[in-house]
């Protein structure tokens, strides 16, 4: 392996390790839901914040991709996005420390700003990251680097889960426990960025319509989707698979409200979730050798549809085994990464890579509204019926995938 390749692999693996450790400090299925639920009892508030967290990077992806496509180097924008996310961590830590007890409504109001900053900067950084990876890592090497990144990322997440378990079980009082978690995330993001500082980035290809206005750029989206059937199928299937997000952050709230678990279980559930992610790598690796990406995606959707039913059953008859739900969450999250991320880079033409990434993000519209819809349904019909509704839709989506193939194809129509 040449020296330049060593720098490339080191940069992405270093960043992947510390990013995973950082995101454990604000895990969206355990830490973040319990923090917001502690500050404010309204599930609408939590649903809105969760929707902003996931949806804001997607809503602005079209604008970001239009801007970034003009720049043949993206590293400075990647670093800017990472530093903005770190600043958001610091802002949330400050609000939690000073206002979580004395004025929780003010803390929640400030969270809307910093969660928006966190999400928007994630979109900005994510587009730059994917473009840099595609330019610096050969196509044949991408499955390898994604596998290695996932291994190191899973290891970091496991360590992060142990740290969260320590923070929330060692008699560290609220709000110091959450403050420590968020400060750790702030430090972790800046450490993660160090891997990219010395990364050699080649110039990307110049787009053929570089001066296209934003309005004409947006108007051209239907034509781009119409001309590429593989890309259209990708968008449809990813939207269908995202329906599980409607209740994903509410499993921990369900455990608090219905099962009466305390904050001590945050770290325990997070560790179990990470164990599911780590062990699933073996399963996805074996499936990837013998089955198409369509099979992996369908299995993920089906698993996401069965998990709410399992949560209901365990809540009624075996609450002490509720950690199984988080184990399956880890499985599903890992499968989505294996099934979607490398595939999109394969089907996107080099000159339109950033454009495809932007369109994909902005058209994944369900992610924006589903968490808030989850809060609405839970308040109207309760946890059990809402969980069953999601199961019905997810299982139906898995069965309705039909013959749509997610197998990456080259531009001449042959399987790569």
- Unreliable stretches covering 5 or more consecutive residues: 403-416
The SSE string, one letter per element, is HHHHHHHHHHHHHHHHH
Q: What is the assigned CATH homologous superfamily?
A: MFS general substrate transporter like domains
- The coarse overall form would be globular
Figure out the total of helices. 17
Q: Strand pairing plus helix content: what structural class?
A: mainly alpha
CATH topology: Growth Hormone, Chain: A
Largest sheet: none
The CATH class, by name, is Mainly Alpha
The CATH architecture can be named as: Up-down Bundle
> What helical percentage do the residues reach?
over 70%
Mean pLDDT: 82
* Number of β-strand runs: 0
Radius of gyration: 21 Å
What's the N-to-C terminus distance? 23 Å
Total domains: 1
Strand content: under 5%
Description of the structure:
By secondary structure, the chain is an all-alpha fold. The chain has one domain: Growth Hormone, Chain: A. The C terminus is likely disordered.
């Amino acid at each position: 392996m040449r020296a330049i390749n060593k720098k490339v692999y080191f940069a992405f693996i270093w960043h992947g390790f510390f990013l995973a450790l950082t995101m454990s400090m604000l895990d969206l299925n355990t830490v973040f839901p319990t923090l917001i639920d502690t500050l404010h009892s309204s599930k609408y508030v939590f649903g809105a914040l969760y929707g902003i967290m996931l949806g804001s990077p997607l809503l602005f992806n079209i604008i970001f991709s239009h801007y970034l496509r003009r720049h043949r180097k993206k590293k400075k924008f990647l670093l800017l996005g990472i530093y903005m996310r770190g600043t958001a961590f610091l802002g949330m830590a400050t609000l939690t420390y000073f206002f979580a007890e004395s004025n929780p409504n003010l803390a929640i109001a400030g969270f809307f700003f910093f969660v928006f900053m966190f999400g928007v900067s994630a979109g900005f950084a994510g587009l730059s990251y994917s473009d840099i990876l595609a330019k610096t890592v050969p196509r044949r090497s991408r499955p390898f680097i994604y596998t290695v990144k996932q291994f190191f990322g899973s290891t970091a997440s496991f360590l992060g889960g142990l740290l969260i378990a320590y923070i929330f079980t060692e008699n560290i009082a609220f709000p110091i426990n959450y403050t420590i978690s968020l400060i750790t995330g702030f430090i972790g993001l800046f450490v993660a960025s160090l891997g990219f500082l010395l990364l050699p980035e080649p110039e990307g290809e110049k787009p053929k319509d570089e001066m296209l206005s934003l309005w004409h750029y947006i108007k051209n989206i239907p034509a781009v989707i119409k001309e590429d059937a593989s890309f259209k199928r990708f968008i449809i299937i990813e939207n269908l698979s995202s329906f599980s997000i409607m209740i994903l952050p509410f499993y921990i709230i369900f455990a608090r409200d219905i099962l009466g678990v305390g904050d001590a279980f945050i770290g325990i559930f997070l560790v179990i979730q990470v164990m599911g992610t780590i062990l699933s790598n073996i399963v996805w690796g074996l499936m990837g050798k013998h089955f198409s990406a369509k099979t992996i995606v369908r299995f993920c959707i089906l698993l996401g549809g069965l998990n709410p039913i399992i949560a209901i059953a365990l809540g009624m008859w075996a609450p002490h085994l509720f950690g199984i739900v988080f184990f399956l969450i880890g499985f599903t999250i890992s499968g989505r990464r294996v099934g979607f991320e490398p595939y999109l880079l394969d089907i996107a033409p080099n000159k339109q890579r950033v454009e495809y990434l932007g369109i994909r993000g902005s058209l994944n519209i369900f992610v924006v509204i589903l968490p808030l819809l989850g809060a609405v349904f839970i308040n109207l019909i309760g946890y059990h019926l809402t969980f069953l509704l999601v199961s019905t839709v997810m299982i139906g989506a898995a069965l309705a995938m039909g013959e749509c193939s997610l197998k990456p194809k080259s531009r001449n129509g042959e399987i790569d």
